[in-house]
C-alpha cells in the first residue's frame, strides 16, 4: 500500500512529520500554553478542583502540567506501533523522523561510502546491541525522562544527533539497520508483514518495493538508491529478512524477551506507586525525576521496600524479560517434542514462527491494556470502547494472517515468476495439459507441480530450468551466490536436483557469465575472499578494483563463495577448482 505512494509525496510527508517532531521537542524546553488544558474542568484536566492521585500511601494533588511528555509517550509512540501492525514496516520506515534525520548527510552530499561488512562484529551482533539500547532506553524513561520535560528534550535531541552522526559515518540506512533502539520494536510488530503490507517477493523483477531506498531522477522517475548496506534487507523485502534469520538465537531473545520488557515496564508503575491507577493520572506530574532516583523503588501492600529506584527499575525489567525468555524457550522445547511425538511435519522455521507470532500477539495486547487503555480517560466512555474493540479486532486479524503463513509457501511464491519464465522458454507445449489455461494463470503450487510431473520433462530439462532460475535470481541480485544453496532448497526438492548439481550449475554460470557475480563481491569480507574461478583475461571491471586491491596480474580471478559454502562443495567441484582453498591476500 505505502510502497506505491510516490517518493515526491512521501518526501513532503516526512518533512511535515520531522518539523512536527522538532516542534514537540522545542515545547519540552519552553511551553507556556498547553498546561492550560490540564487545569481542573479542562479537556485533559481533572473533573474536580481538589483531585489527587495516590502515591506510596499519600494522596498528592493533581497540578497542571505541559503536555509534551504525554503527547510523545502516550500518543506518538502508540500510534507508531499501530502503524506497524496495520501497515507494516514499509509504512513506518518511509515516514520515521529518525530515519529522515539519518539521511540528511546523504542529501547534502556529506555521507561517507563506508558500509558495515557482512561478517563484522557489528553485522553479527547488531540485534544484541539494539536490544541493549532499547533496554537502556526503557530504564532511562522510568528513571529520568518519562515526565521530566527538560531531560526528555535532551534525550530526544541526543538521539537525533546520534542518527545524523551514524548517517554521516556509514552509507545507506545503517542507522536503521544497526543502531536504532526502536528497530527491535519495529521488527516485532511488522514481521513477517502487517495487515495491509504489500508483497515484495511477488513484484516484477527490478521493482522498487516496500521501503526500499529510492531517489527521483531529473525526469521525475523513481530509481533505486540501494547501496547494499544490509543483506537480506528488510526495506526491500521484510518477509525475506524475517525468514532468513528466524532460526538465529538473537531472534529468540528479541521475541521472547520483549514480552517481559513490555509487561515489566507497565507493571513497575504499580509496584512503584502502590496502586494500579498511577499511570492514568499522576505520572505526568512527576516533573523532577532526578530527585527520586534514590527514593524507595517499590511500595507493596502499604510498605516501602528500601531498594533505591535506580536499582529497582533495572531489576524489574531484567526479571520480567528473563522470565518470559525462559518461558519462551521451554515452550519451544515442548512444541518440538510434541511435533516429534505426533510426527507433525512442521519445520524448525515454522515452530519458531508460530511461537514468535503468539508472543507478538500477547505483547501487543499487554501494551495496549496495561499502557494505552489506562491513559484514555480524557476520551468519552463510548470512544474508549470503540478504540479497545478496534485494537482487539486488529490484533486478532493480524494473528490469523500471520499464524497461517509458512516459509515453504513464501519460497514458492517468491520463485514462481522465475520458474514460470524458465518453463515458457522450454520447447514443451504446456497448454495441452492446462485445460485452456496459460502459465500466467497458474499459482505457485500449480507451477511447482507442473514442473515436477510434466510429461516428457526429463531430468536434464529440470536441471536446465533450475540453472536458468539460478542465473536470473543472481542477475536480479535477489540472492547472493553464497546463499543460493539454502534459498533454492525447496525448488531443488521439487525438481529432484541434488547439491552436487547445484554447485556444478553455479560453477558453469561463473565461467559463462562472470559479470553476474561482480556486484556480490562488496558483501564478502577480506577474510573470505578467495580465488574461485579463472576469468577471461579480457574481462575487467572498475568495481572490482574499487572493492579489492587487485592488480593486473590477478584481475582475472574473483571470489564467489564464503567459507561456509566452500566447505560444502562436492568433491568433484573441489578437484576442478583446487585454488579455492587458497586465501586471496592483500599482497596479491
TrEMBL record:
It comes from Crocosphaera subtropica (strain ATCC 51142 / BH68). This is Uncharacterized protein. Residues 540-588 are annotated as: Disordered. Keywords: Membrane, Transmembrane, Transmembrane helix. The keyword Cell membrane does not apply. It comes from the Bacteria. The chain crosses the membrane at residues 12-30, 71-88, 127-144, 150-172, 253-271, 310-331, 351-372, 378-400. The keyword Transmembrane helix applies.
Amino acid at each position: 500500500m505505502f510502497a506505491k505512494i510516490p517518493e515526491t509525496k512521501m518526501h513532503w510527508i516526512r518533512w511535515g512529520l520531522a518539523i512536527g517532531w522538532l516542534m514537540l521537542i522545542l515545547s519540552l524546553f519552553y511551553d507556556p500554553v498547553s498546561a492550560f488544558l490540564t487545569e481542573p474542568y479542562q479537556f485533559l484536566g481533572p473533573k474536580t478542583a481538589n483531585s489527587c492521585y495516590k502515591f506510596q500511601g499519600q494522596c498528592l494533588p493533581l497540578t497542571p502540567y505541559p503536555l509534551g511528555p504525554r503527547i510523545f509517550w502516550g500518543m506518538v509512540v502508540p500510534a507508531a506501533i499501530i502503524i506497524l501492525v496495520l501497515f507494516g514496516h514499509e509504512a513506518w520506515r518511509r515516514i520515521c523522523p529518525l530515519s529522515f534525520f539519518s539521511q540528511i548527510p546523504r542529501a547534502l552530499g556529506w555521507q561517507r561510502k563506508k558500509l558495515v561488512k557482512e561478517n563484522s562484529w557489528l553485522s553479527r551482533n547488531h540485534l544484541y546491541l539494539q536490544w541493549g539500547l532499547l533496554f537502556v532506553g526503557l530504564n532511562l524513561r522510568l528513571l529520568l525522562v518519562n515526565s521530566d520535560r527538560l531531560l526528555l528534550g535532551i534525550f530526544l535531541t541526543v538521539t537525533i544527533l546520534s542518527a545524523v552522526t551514524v548517517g554521516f559515518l556509514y552509507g545507506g540506512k545503517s542507522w536503521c539497520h544497526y543502531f536504532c533502539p526502536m528497530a527491535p520494536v519495529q521488527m516485532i510488530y511488522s514481521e513477517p508483514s502487517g495487515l495491509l503490507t504489500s508483497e515484495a517477493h511477488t513484484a516484477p523483477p527490478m521493482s522498487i518495493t516496500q521501503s526500499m531506498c529510492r531517489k527521483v531522477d531529473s525526469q521525475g522517475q523513481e530509481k533505486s538508491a540501494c547501496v547494499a548496506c544490509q543483506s537480506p534487507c528488510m526495506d526491500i523485502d521484510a518477509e525475506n529478512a524475517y525468514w532468513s534469520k528466524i532460526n538465529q538465537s538473537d531472534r529468540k531473545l528479541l521475541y521472547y524477551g520483549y514480552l517481559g520488557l513490555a509487561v515489566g515496564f507497565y507493571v513497575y508503575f504499580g509496584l512503584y506507586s502502590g496502586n494500579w491507577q498511577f499511570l492514568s493520572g499522576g505520572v505526568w506530574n512527576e516533573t523532577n525525576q532526578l530527585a527520586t532516583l534514590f527514593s524507595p523503588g517499590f511500595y507493596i501492600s502499604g510498605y516501602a521496600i528500601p531498594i533505591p529506584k535506580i536499582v529497582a527499575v533495572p531489576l524489574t525489567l531484567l526479571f520480567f524479560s528473563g522470565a518470559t525468555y525462559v518461558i519462551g524457550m521451554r515452550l519451544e522445547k515442548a512444541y518440538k517434542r510434541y511435533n516429534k511425538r505426533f510426527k507433525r511435519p512442521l519445520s524448525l522455521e515454522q515452530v519458531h514462527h508460530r511461537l514468535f507470532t503468539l508472543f507478538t500477539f500477547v505483547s501487543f495486547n499487554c501494551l495496549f491494556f496495561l499502557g494505552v487503555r489506562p491513559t484514555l480517560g480524557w476520551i468519552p466512555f463510548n470512544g474508549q470502547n470503540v478504540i479497545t474493540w478496534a485494537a482487539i479486532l486488529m490484533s486478532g486479524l493480524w494473528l490469523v494472517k500471520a499464524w497461517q503463513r509458512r516459509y515453504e509457501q513464501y519460497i514458492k511464491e517468491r520463485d514462481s515468476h522465475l520458474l514460470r519464465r524458465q518453463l515458457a522458454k522450454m520447447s514443451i507445449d504446456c497448454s495441452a495439459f492446462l485445460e485452456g489455461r496459460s502459465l500466467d494463470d497458474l499459482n505457485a503450487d500449480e507451477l511447482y507441480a507442473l514442473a515436477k510431473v510434466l510429461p516428457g520433462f526429463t531430468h536434464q530439462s529440470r536441471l536446465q530450468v533450475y540453472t536458468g532460475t539460478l542465473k536470473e535470481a543472481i542477475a536480479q541480485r535477489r540472492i547472493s551466490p553464497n546463499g543460493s544453496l539454502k534459498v533454492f532448497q525447496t525448488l531443488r526438492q521439487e525438481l529432484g536436483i541434488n547439491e552436487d548439481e547445484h554447485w556444478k550449475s553455479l560453477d558453469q554460470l561463473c565461467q559463462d557469465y562472470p559479470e553476474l557475480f561482480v556486484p556480490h563481491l562488496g558483501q564478502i569480507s577480506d577474510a573470505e575472499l578467495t580465488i574461485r574461478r579463472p576469468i577471461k583475461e579480457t574481462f575487467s571491471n572498475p568495481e572490482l578494483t574499487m572493492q579489492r586491491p587487485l592488480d593486473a596480474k590477478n584481475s582475472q580471478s574473483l571470489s564467489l563463495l564464503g567459507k561456509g559454502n566452500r566447505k560444502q562443495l562436492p568433491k568433484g567441484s573441489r578437484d576442478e577448482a583446487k585454488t579455492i582453498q587458497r586465501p586471496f591476500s592483500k599482497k596479491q
